[in-house]
Design brief:
This protein is mainly α. The protein is 66% helix and 0% strand. It has four helices and no strands. Helix 2 packs antiparallel against helix 3 (94-110). The longest helix is centred in the C-terminal third of the chain and has 40 residues, at 113-152. It starts with 11 loop residues before the first helix and ends in a 9-residue tail after the last helix.
Amino acid sequence: MDYESRPNSVPWPPLLFAGAAALALLLHLSSPVRCHCAMAGLVLQAAGVALIAGAILIDVLAVLAFRRHHTTILPNKGANRLITTGIFAWSRNPVYLGNFMLVAGAGLLSGIWALVLAAPVALLATKKLAVEREEQHLSLKFGNDWKIYRQRTRRWFGQKS
């Protein structure tokens, strides 16, 4: 594949997260596992709400950054700009981090543990099928600018010291 023009021919991340969530829901329907402790349930639901709210905020900030920089958000299209500011100063992959938080948060909020377990599986699959290819694309396309950004910013969250 010509990684310089685009990282993937398939938009893996949304398919992986949606597929993992769908499989988790099917698993839950066939053999549900729920938390029955009222206090723990409330704490987990609050954590789920916080994760979902954080995911929405991250995704909105990322979409606005893509628009502001006039580049694509589609994971199977080539980037024409390297975004390194805003939410992208904290994560090289904020949309995928948001997707992870959304699936895990939905699991905590609903008490569907299969969703909580599906979230890291989808994130690992996304790393292998999309992130590594996207990073190769960005390296070929933006060279030293990508190298500096990669050294400064973590893949998932937080600036490196």
